[in-house]
Write a structure and sequence with these properties.
With 143 residues, the protein is α+β, with helices and mostly antiparallel strands. The chain has helices at residues 4-12, 22-31, 81-86, 107-116, 118-142, and strands spanning 33-37, 42-44, 52-65, 68-73, 78-79, 93-106.
């Protein structure tokens, strides 16, 4: 189990939260929930309403759409942020790839933090823009 201090130190390494002062990260750390998963454990289900985003502390996450792996994410990456931003259903299934530790941040707490800290919104835009750029490069290589 991670202490609040360990969570704060971890959050500082995540792009999404890197611009936020430590005092604010303490609040965020206090509202996250640690989840320990085993290989193959599913924690996001395609088509369900998203109520949380997940930060990968340790391990890897496999993202699948219609049983096809579309990405593998690792430590300090974020998954599940799309549906808590746009209130749409989850666009993919997510599974632990080996033992994996996540920090879960629920939509209500996330919305409160976003309202108080616009720099988090900028961090999210950076993450999403990066993913879009990767998809564009991959699509261009296929043409």
């Amino acid at each position: 189990m991670l202490s609040t201090v360990e969570k704060v130190l971890f959050l500082k390494t995540v792009d999404l939260f890197s611009a936020i002062p430590g005092s604010d990260l303490t609040h965020i750390a206090g509202v996250t929930e640690e989840e320990d998963l085993l290989d193959g454990d599913q924690f996001i289900h395609q088509g369900e309403t998203g109520d949380s985003l997940f930060l990968i502390v340790d391990g890897e996450v496999e993202i699948k759409v219609s049983h096809t792996t579309v990405a593998t994410l690792g430590e300090r990456q974020v998954v599940g942020e799309m549906s808590i931003l746009d209130s749409e259903t989850r666009s993919a299934d997510c599974f632990a790839k080996g033992p994996t530790t996540l920090l879960k941040l629920r939509k209500g707490e996330f919305d409160d933090i976003m309202a108080e800290k616009p720099e988090i919104a900028r961090g999210i835009l950076k993450v999403l823009t990066g993913r879009l750029r990767q998809k564009n490069v991959a699509a261009a290589k296929q043409d």
